[in-house]
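Objective 1b. Sequence-to-structure analysis of Uracil phosphoribosyltransferase.
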Amino acid sequence: MRVHVADHPLITHKLTVLRDVQTPSVTFRELVSELMTLLAYEATRDVRVESVGITTPVAPTTGVRIADPKPLIVPILRAGLGMLDGMVKLLPSAEVGFLGMARNEETLQPTTYAERLPDDLSGRQCFVLDPMLATGGSLAAAIKFLLDRGATDVTAICILAAPEGLAAVEAATEGLDVKIVLGAVDERLNENGYIVPGLGDAGDRLYGTV
Ligand code: PRP
Ligand code: URA
């Protein structure tokens, strides 16, 4: 597993406002989207491209375009949905599949309640979006889901991670080429499985408590 923490003052600044309990939902949503776009820049560094010939107003030349098959973006519902527009802004030709997962707040085990993904993911570059990597159970299950469908190239993009969750995902993906791009690695998990200092419940802060 390769982990990249996007250490940039703009990211740290936006993260600070995002963490603040006083930040209202409307600002929280905007910041998640903006942070996603900044993280997407790092996460797509190895996106597959192919060469293409074009003609400028001055001369013919060659450039590159995103290769086929197009990348697949997989937001994990609910909270990952808040990252989707920030990602497609940068990668508009990508396709989007969905995984719905909810963590049982007592056992901290994830369950998958929805799935809309291609049956065959071989040869697809997959980008999984989830703002929070806490125990790592949800992300490990999501990555396993994609690998079981034949994916071999998976990048996860998270805004915050706990060291315990990173270790759990590492153990679950041992020997596999999985990349994780993060805004920050926080101190630890608390006794309720929340990231400390974290930002609270990302889904609730985006969409309210349901
Ligand atoms: C949150 C978060 C992750 C998961 C992280 O989602 O968005 O998916 O918890 O926790 P883990 O690393 O311990 O598995 P949640 O299950 O609360 O669902 P929601 O997005 O609908 O709020
Ligand atoms: N899910 C969240 O939304 N926040 C946490 O801190 C942990 C899991």
